[in-house]
UniProtKB/TrEMBL annotation:
InterPro entries for the chain: Cyt_P450 (IPR001128), Cyt_P450_CS (IPR017972), Cyt_P450_E_grp-I (IPR002401), Cyt_P450_sf (IPR036396), Cytochrome_P450_monoxygenase (IPR050121)
Listed SUPFAM superfamilies: Cytochrome P450
Keyword Mitochondrion: no
Annotated heme binding sites: C372
Keywords: Heme, Iron, Metal-binding, Monooxygenase, Oxidoreductase
Cofactor or coenzyme needed: heme
Domain of life: Eukaryota
Name listed for the protein in its UniProt record: Uncharacterized protein
GO molecular function terms listed in the Swiss-Prot or TrEMBL record: heme binding; iron ion binding; monooxygenase activity; oxidoreductase activity, acting on paired donors, with incorporation or reduction of molecular oxygen
An example Gene Ontology biological process: mycotoxin biosynthetic process
Pfam families found in the cross-reference section: p450
Alphabetized Gene3D superfamilies for the sequence: Cytochrome P450
Family statement: Belongs to the cytochrome P450 family.
Length: 443
């Protein structure tokens, strides 16, 4: 049995992962597949599952390259580097609340990461936050999105499973997804009716129109896009945030080095904002990259279909209509590329070869025209959250969970991306529901 975590020595650089599907595991194949021209490679029909209504596709589900380009231009308007300073001012209050909650609540830190990411993306999307960090009423949303994500991933692997949707009246998971669809539709239509311009995505949707391709957003199209953006802007970021905390808390040397660097660079927590000082914290960025290498938010194949008569992928001639893809999870653990590939070693990005790694091998946001449009926002959130958290708090691990070399004796199976063996302690050092302790730093 070959899975995404099967060692490359066993599976080889390319193997048949389905009746009409090839899985490649090389950086050259990543380039050949995802940077190929649209007449050579495209998205298969299985991507249509990423829209609540197939008649109004999202930026992720559309198979039309022209429509994707229109949606990408629209969404990237708010996420371009030149406007991220305004976005930063919108998200800083939520990050401050997150850091405060770490020292006063008994919630699992992964829950706090989930709530933070939803609060941020909902503000950017609707112009008002869901406020999950403060209020419990909407905390069912992350669980509903998890259910929907599992359903979508299952359908991507086995499209015929979609026929089970007709059992929605008796299968609980469908009830959760239906509730999510109805709630987000009402929220979207209410925002559309408001009309007043705000600094949010809905304002961009309403104003967007392509003079060349006649593309625009309908009210239903704004709803389907908003459902996707809520997931893309929350689940992937919180997963990476959780992975970053997970590995830092279990690698004492990296944690201490990063904490010392941050406290030597900044005098006050309020100074930790985007700018030269934060950009020069190269070890912080190395820690983020290393977490994303080990735990890519999208670990599975991102399937494409060969449109041309034949396509050469990393030296292999692939016939037309074949589904192809690359698993970042497998690729990022190739021992021929990354020494000690299974270990969390931020220093690998700072070595004499680190510049090459940064330019050639950091592909966690994808490559090509359909690469992640939210990269700038995700990196901003990750760096600000981790930097402010470690600036304020000291982190220690219970002795029974740490081995002599400073690493956990039994790490969670992070391929599942669940990090529920954590805990946080307040400034009074009272233990709460976790696997790590966080103490207020004395300065």
């Amino acid at each position: 049995i070959i899975t995404i975590d099967t060692p490359l020595e066993k599976s080889g650089p390319v193997f048949r992962s389905g009746p009409n599907e090839l899985s490649f595991q090389s950086f050259q194949s990543l380039h050949d597949i995802y940077k190929a021209k649209e007449d050579k490679v495209g998205k298969p029909n299985t991507w249509k599952i990423f829209s609540m209504d197939s008649s109004d596709p999202t930026i992720l589900s559309t198979l039309d390259d022209g429509e994707h380009a229109f949606k990408h231009r629209t969404i990237s308007t708010m996420l371009a580097p030149g406007v991220m300073r305004n976005v930063e001012q919108q998200i800083l209050p939520y990050i401050a609340t997150f850091v405060d909650r770490l020292g006063e609540s008994d919630h699992d830190i992964q829950d706090l990461c989930n709530w933070l990411s939803f609060d941020i993306i909902s503000d950017l999307l609707y112009g008002e936050s869901f406020n999950l960090l403060q209020l419990p009423e909407l905390r069912w949303l992350p669980e509903a999105y998890t259910a929907m994500s599992r359903w979508i991933m299952t359908c991507m692997v086995q499209p015929k499973v979609k026929l089970l949707i007709y059992l929605y009246r008796i299968v609980p998971v469908f009830q959760s997804i239906i509730k999510l669809g109805k709630w987000t539709k009402q929220r979207s239509f209410t925002r559309c009716a408001a009309g007043a311009p705000r600094d949010d995505f809905f304002t961009l949707f309403q104003q967007a129109e392509s003079k060349h391709t006649n593309h625009s957003y309908t009210n239903k199209g704004m709803w389907t896009e908003s459902v996707l953006l809520l997931a893309a802007g929350s689940d992937t970021t919180s997963t990476t945030m959780g992975a970053l905390f997970f590995h830092l808390f279990r690698n004492r040397d990296a944690l201490n080095k990063l904490t010392s660097t941050l406290r030597a660079t900044f005098e006050h927590e309020s100074e930790i904002v985007s700018g030269p000082e934060l950009a020069n914290c190269v070890y912080l960025h190395a820690c983020v990259r290393e977490a994303m290498r080990l735990v890519p938010a999208v670990p599975n194949l991102s399937p494409r279909v060969v449109r041309s008569h034949e396509l050469v992928i990393d030296g292999c001639h692939v016939p037309q209509k074949t589904h192809v893809g690359v698993s970042l999870y497998s690729l990022n653990r190739d021992p021929k590329v990354f020494e000690e590939a299974e270990d969390y070693l931020p220093e690998r990005w700072l070595s004499t070869d680190g510049q090459r790694l940064n330019l050639e091998l950091f592909k966690s946001f994808g490559v090509g025209p359909r690469a992640c449009v939210g990269m700038n926002l995700a990196l901003l959130e990750l760096t600000l959250v981790v930097a402010r958290t470690l600036f304020r708090y000291d982190v220690t691990s219970p002795p029974e969970r740490v081995s002599p070399n400073g690493r956990s004796e039994s790490e969670e199976d992070y391929c599942q991306f669940t990090f529920d063996a954590w805990a946080v302690a307040s400034a009074r050092r009272s233990q709460v529901n976790t696997g790590c302790f966080v103490e207020r730093a004395s300065r």
